[in-house]
Amino acid sequence: MRKEATTLKSSLEGIRVLDLTQIMAGPFCTMLLADLGADVIKIEKPAGGDDSRRMGEIVNGESAAFLTLNRNKRGIVLDLRTEQGKDVLWRLIAVSDVLVENFRPGTMSKLGFDYESVHLKHPQLVYCSISGFGQTGPWRDRGGFDLVAQAMSGVLSVTGTPETPTKVGVPISDLNAGLFASHAILAALYNRQHTGVGQYIETSLLEAAMAYTIWESNEHWVTGHVPQRLGTAHRASAPYQVFPTSDGFIAIGAANQRTWEKLTQALNRPDLRDDPMFLTNRDRMSHIPQLVEALTEVLSRKTTDEWLNLLDKTGVPAGPVLSVDQVYQHPQVIARNMNLQSEHPTAGTVHTIGFPVKYSDTPATLRSLGPVLGQHTSEVLAEIGFTKDQIDNMIEQGVIVPV
Q1: How many other C-beta atoms lie within 10 A of the C-beta of residue 135?
Q2: pTM above 0.90?
């Protein structure tokens, strides 16, 4: 029987998420859910809350990165080591759809909130764990960090110049783990619509990074070779990399034969098109040093903007290498509304990155920046039935912390 359509203001309206995470991977996961309208309740420890509150650039006592990673969330402070604190969490779980945690494996079990115990009482809950190396295996108990995951996944070994391995400039293991976790949570919620039952899902920084080594892993499996670092070059196409110009750098993606021929036209170098070393992609891949030398010699004669105009006219994909400040000045970024501003009670006006996905009917919205520590503690507890006297008593006992 077909269900009647329901109009929602946001995609995840009516979904409540308990966020027991900190730093990057977990908060990024729950930020994505909050952006889509989920009521995300961030639960922090009494002693200073999320460690990321003290990381990065500080604006009037607040971490700017924390404010973005925890935007659109409500925040409470709760001491889960106390019996009263545990009781509060159980009551929150009873009225929630999702729980996300990124403690070291075994921590939630010690607190009494392992998946088996929670599922027994509240089988509707989707329970998600994010860890450094996963919940099983000989490294399960080790703490994980983005750098370590990049190193162990192979990502670091194939990034950088042939002489020097280089960390990816952004915390790709953390962010990928958060992205995969949010994706899995949505799938589990969809499954729950049909079964009425939640499930346990888990991912790790290690696996999240490994999942992106598609070219490299398959190169190894097929050839038996160990993939090497190529700088900005591509593993299967040439020319597809960054080149210097007279005033900066330009990224050129001539990833197929037709585009390569268009590039030689834009450069006014038909001799390169007809050179036996560069006739086919296989030829060009076999002669990358000679190809790079020839193209660098030509491209260094004009500015980046001059080349961009010529390449655009001939249909060659290309773009400038922009610094972060230049990114937010670019007309395409401005047109896509990727620099948002909002007011915070202590930090004042703060910028935050815009939403990378646009929805026609249920768009992501910026409702608030990351909460002040304990900002919504009393509000949330009142919603789940605690009286003012009970809340005041827990404040006095140090179980909860209000603003």
Answers
A1: 14
A2: yes
Distance CA 291, CA 307 (A): 18
What is the chain's mean pLDDT, rounded?
96
- Residue 403's pLDDT is what? 73
The CATH architecture one would assign to domain 240-327 is 2-Layer Sandwich (3.30)
Is 2's pLDDT higher than 50? no
In three-state secondary structure terms, 134 is: coil
Q: Calculate the CA 16 to chain-centre distance.
A: 21
Q: Which segments of 165-255 does DSSP mark as H helices, in order?
A: 172-195, 205-210, 214-223
Structure tokens at 373: 């520590």
pLDDT tens column, 267-296:
999 999 999 999 999 999 999 999 999 999
Helix, strand, or coil (residue 367): coil
User: Which residues form the catalytic set?
Assistant: 174
Boundaries of every domain in the chain: 16-212+340-401, 240-327
Report how far residue 240's alpha carbon sits from residue 234's, in angstroms, rounded to the nearest whole number.
6
Two structure tokens written together for 381? 């507890």
Dist CA 403 CA 371 (whole Å):
10
> How far, CA to CA in Å, does 378 sit from each of 34, 37, 76, 250, 374?
20, 22, 8, 53, 8
22-73 per-position pLDDT tens digit: 999 999 999 999 999 999 999 999 989 999 999 999 999 999 999 999 999 9
**One-letter amino acid for residue 261 of the chain:** E
* pLDDT at residue 6, as a whole number: 65
Q: Which CATH class is domain 16-212+340-401?
A: alpha beta
Mark 222-255 as b/e (b = at least 16 C-beta within 10 Å): eeeeebebbeebbbebbbbbebebeeeebbbbbb
